[in-house]
Every structure is written in C-alpha cells, then in structure tokens.
C-alpha cells in the first residue's frame, strides 16, 4: 500500500529503532499495513488499539506518548470518537503540537477514503512541487490573489510553513485588503451558493451581508464573531496535494492542488500575532497568485505544475 509506505517514510528512522501505532478500531487495517512497513525497515513496532470512549485521553497514555516522543516513532490513526484524546495527548496544528514532532505522524481524524487519496500519491513529485512553490514564494513582499469567482485580495506574507497538503503563511496583521469569494469549500463541502467576505485592514468588515438563512454562511458568521479577533485574516494557504478533492470536506479540500484557502482567527502557532479562541478556513477554487518580489519584479505562480 503506497499510503503505508509514505507514512513510514514520514516517520523515518527513530533513534530507538522502535515505533508505536496508536489507532481507532475502524482504521485497524491501515494501522497494520503501516506497522508491517515499519517492521520491514527494521523498526520494532507495537500497536495500541484505542478503546470505545470519547472523552479526553487518560493520563497514562498521555504520559507514555510524551516520554517517547522524539526518540520513538509515533503514528496516530484516529476517528472523531477519539479526537479529544488525540488533541489532549499531542495537540493540534492550529493550537500547537505539545510533543516533539520528530518521527511523529497523525492523521488528525481524516476519513479513510480521503486518507488514501491524499497519501497514495507520488511523494517525490509532491516534494518537488512544494519546493518549487516555496522557492517562488520565499522572496514575496506582497501577494495578490485573484480567481474567476471574483476573489481579488492583496496581503503581505510572513515566513512560509508547509505540510504535505499545503504551504501557508500568517499575513502581516492589518495589511490584507480586498474581496474573498468563497466558492470552493465551507466546512463540509462546496457552498450552496458562493458568498463574499470584504477585508479591510486585515479584518472582515461585511458581516451584515452574510445570509443567516444559509446554514454555511450562518456558521461563518458565528465563527467570525466568537471574539474580537475572530474576524482577522490569520492565514493564507495554497493546496499542493494532487490526490485531494476540491469538492470534499474542508480537511481534504484545502489540500487540493488548484485551490487556495483563507483562515481566520488564531494564528500564534505558525508565525502570527493574532490570538483568538478559534481558527477556521474557507477555500477558493482556481486562484491566480501574483507575487511582488523584494527586488520589485512581479511573477505569476502557476499552480498547475509548480
């Protein structure tokens, strides 16, 4: 299974030459495939099947993971039934990882079909695409994003972060101005009808325009008003995974190559200065990204081939 091979590559060779695969019961087949791949590489692998509870993780598991992290390979394959255990034990990307991330892999509750689509890809091609894209973005002093759906926004990026699903930055607070038309994904899938967010001085200012009778827009309105900083543009990300579907739920759609996404709210963990109780993303299809470089030159980023 290519997905299992790619996860084993991510874990690498832990100093202890040992690994734990911790999994929710519905992901047992995948867990076994990853364990077998690790064993084939000379890594002694143990498997831990999580029980049928949904509350925060027990202290013994949390303490064991924290004592092993960094020295021993750790693989978490979980469903939402064990999400609180996962977040309590190792943390979450938008709020910070609580343990050393060397030799750590977590799927963060992604469904099986989406997991296979996003992991059974050519890892070498994905790496090359990501590195080429980061090379183009690294010298950007300003970025303009337009899209056929009507998006047209400029922002000043900070340093770029990456995963195997996206490259992303925390825009400098107060710099973003323009319009975002959400036509890719809002939470569980494509919006019933595209809607726009007007950003001025880094903050959404047209909350009154959101349609409270539209379930997705009503959720956006709730999330943008959770606290004073919830409406701040906190992230700009670009999907890079060729296997991800743009019309899936958010966790997959924001990774899809040929999309970008805008995050709002909390961003302290990846370079921003905005503290909020929440963070959420919205996806735009077919963006055109214009990079204004430090030397004053301008270039267009082609997301079709990096």
From TrEMBL:
Superkingdom of origin: Bacteria
Matching Pfam families: NicX (PF26233)
Organism name: Candidatus Fermentithermobacillus carboniphilus
Stretches of the chain forming a coiled coil according to its record: none
Keyword Protease included in the entry's annotation: yes
SUPFAM superfamilies: Thermophilic metalloprotease-like
Keywords: Aminopeptidase, Hydrolase, Metal-binding, Protease
GO function term, MF aspect, one: aminopeptidase activity
Species classification: Bacteria, Bacillati, Bacillota, Candidatus Fermentithermobacillia, Candidatus Fermentithermobacillales
InterPro entries in the cross-refs: M29_Exopeptidase, NicX
Protein name: Aminopeptidase
